[in-house]
Amino acid sequence: MSMRSMIPVEGIEQRIYFLRGHKVMLDSDLALLYGVSTTRLNEQVRRNAARFPTDFMFQLTSGEFRGLMSQIAISKPGRGGRRKLPLVFTQEGVAMLSGVLSSPRAIQVNVTIMRVFVRLREMISSNRDLARRLDALEKKNNRRFRIVFEAINELMEPPVKPRPQIGFHLRKK
Questions:
Q1: pLDDT tens, 96-148?
Q2: Which residues pair with 23 in a beta bridge?
Q3: 2-6, 35-39, 167-171: segment of lowest average pLDDT
Q4: Which terminus of the chain has fewer CB atoms gathered within 10 Å of its CB, N or C?
Q5: Which of 1, 3, 17 is nearest to 116 (CA)?
């Protein structure tokens, strides 16, 4: 069995989250993929802190962590779960991990993760192109069919009946 077949691409896609405007992966998910403990991965990252500026890696706030706990299965603190807030890695941070964790598995995992990030970026880009095309088509059709849309809107609005006035009315002399 090849190393590539042991790394599930679908599993990687499900472990990419969108936080602070970045697509990121949790340290625990990366450790699992690399086949090392989260403690070992974070230890190597801390020893090589200069390789991980804040746009490559950052620590979650307690609010962000609570939000993730509700989305994924992370045990509550004090019950055998995490004792510290997790680190998350952007695509660049994941690429930098290959220099810190240099096992053959780590290298193969990094290659696979990079391919997933690229595929996600292509999907987002194609969705933006599609949205732009739809907007252009809508504007074009709005100009052509504005009269039709206005007529339909008028037909959809029920006619307003005049309401009889209630009360006393004074006539001016």
A1: 887 787 777 777 777 788 788 788 777 777 777 766 776 776 777 666 666 66
A2: 18
A3: 2-6
A4: C
A5: 17
Q: In terms of Cα–Cα distance, which of 49, 42, 46 is closest to 83?
A: 42
Are the C-beta atoms of residues 17 and 88 closer than 8 Å to each other? yes
What CA–CA distances, in Å, run from 25 to 28, 113, 138? 9, 10, 37
| pTM value > 0.70 | no
d(CA 68, CA 86): 10
Give the model's confidence band at 73: pLDDT under 50 very low, under 70 low, under 90 confident, else very high.
low
Q: Round to whole Å and give the CA distance between 31 and 98.
A: 12
Residues 6+ apart with CB under 8 A from 9: 112, 115, 116
